[in-house]
Amino acid sequence: MTSYLLRGVSVLGAEPTDLLIRDGVIAAGPATDADVIDAAGLVALPGLVDLHTHLREPGREDAETVETGSRAAALGGYTAVFAMANTSPVADTAGVVEQVWRLGREAGLVDVQPIGAVTVGLAGKQLAELGAMATSAAGVRIFSDDGHCVADPRLMRRALEYVKAFDGIIAQHAEEPRLTEGAQMHEGEVSTRLGLTGWPAVAEEAIIARDVLLAEHVGSRLHICHVSTAGSVEVLRQAKARGVRVTAEVTPHHLLLTDELAASYDPVYKVNPPLRTAKDVQALRDALVEGVIDIVATDHAPHAVEDKECEWAYARPGMVGLETALPVVLSVLGQRWDLIAERMSRTPARIAGLTGHGTDLAVGDPANLTLVDPSARRVVDPSELASRSRNTPYAGTTLPGRIVATFLRGEPTVLDGKAVK
Ligand SMILES: NC(=O)N[C@@H](CC(=O)O)C(=O)O
């Protein structure tokens, strides 16, 4: 196994030093046999961990496969991604989660951890085989019907009770379906102007409020996917102050983009939950810095051309995000490396109970890390994305930061900004 010496690297923004990678771990001592990488001006971060990725395999391999999504993740600086269950067939059995887990191992570009569905077929009627998925080779800990809300409160309570036995987590897509029937975008001034049916903030906030009470009652762990409104932040703030075991994520796009973009009627801006107002964006940024929102998760949602390049009402919601997440977060937070490592690597790894990722990059830690050039700026070109889909809302946008290299257990997955395999 090749050893690497990262010469003059800044670990999390600290003074430049030499970092040696040997036998898959961060090592100390002489490095006579190592390949030297000139890392002057580059910042090393623990490899990013994404708790919310859609990989589309099995079922929609035309939009993404485990392999193409893994490559996009590595190029974005990720060393672990959690694959959502809304595949076809749905990942609601031990067989499907093991298939996704195995495909991830075969691709070998990031650690792919499957998320299991909460209910059979995401239909919200009957609990899926949570125990069988937990004890499968994939060792599922996080369960989610993402794309759909577990709307039935009794089923949600049962799911929370069930996963408590193995310290599992229910990750809720918070959307009261009766309040969002026919919804196309955020309900507000812009939707009124455009004549599009609105998705009100309260549809998200009402489910979060209900579920933090259920999680408190049961004493179980709840995670809220893609928080998008200022009101949701307030509900989470109160729940956390009371000691409820709830964690929450925000997507890069909800930290940057607003509902005004829908005025273009370009479905690239159609996403679930929808882009909200500038006031919501500010509240989400503040909550992320403060820690009321624990992590950034991409909600990478690749879609085939025919599902995106059509009339707004017929387009599928979702945006690709793995390859632009860190640049977007850098543009929002600035070069606050410790905060970025906390929100994009350490805390997601801790929430998921994932060992070996999200470390301090100390001697002996597994060499899961990414090297960033913070001075580079890049114009996003959809044709250059490694994802099989092109539905990025940042085409033509200049974003700061370039991922130069990524290492998974000491093996490079990205070098010189290019995927190694
Ligand atoms: N986030 C999205 O806009 N889309 C997700 C599922 C969903 O949450 O609707 C997808 O799977 O495409």
From TrEMBL:
Residues 43-230 form the Dihydroorotase catalytic domain. InterPro entries: DHOase (IPR004722), DHOase/Allantoinase_Hydrolase (IPR050138), DHOase_cat (IPR024403), Dihydroorotase_CS (IPR002195), Metal-dep_hydrolase_composite (IPR011059), Metal_Hydrolase (IPR032466). It holds the Pfam family DHOase. Zn(2+) 1 binds at residues 52, 54, 146, 299. PROSITE patterns: DIHYDROOROTASE_2. It catalyses: (S)-dihydroorotate + H2O = N-carbamoyl-L-aspartate + H(+). Keywords: Hydrolase, Metal-binding, Pyrimidine biosynthesis, Zinc. Substrate binds at residues 54-56, 86, 272, 303, 317-318. NCBIfam families: PRK09357.1-1, pyrC_multi. This is Dihydroorotase. It comes from Paractinoplanes hotanensis. The gene is pyrC.
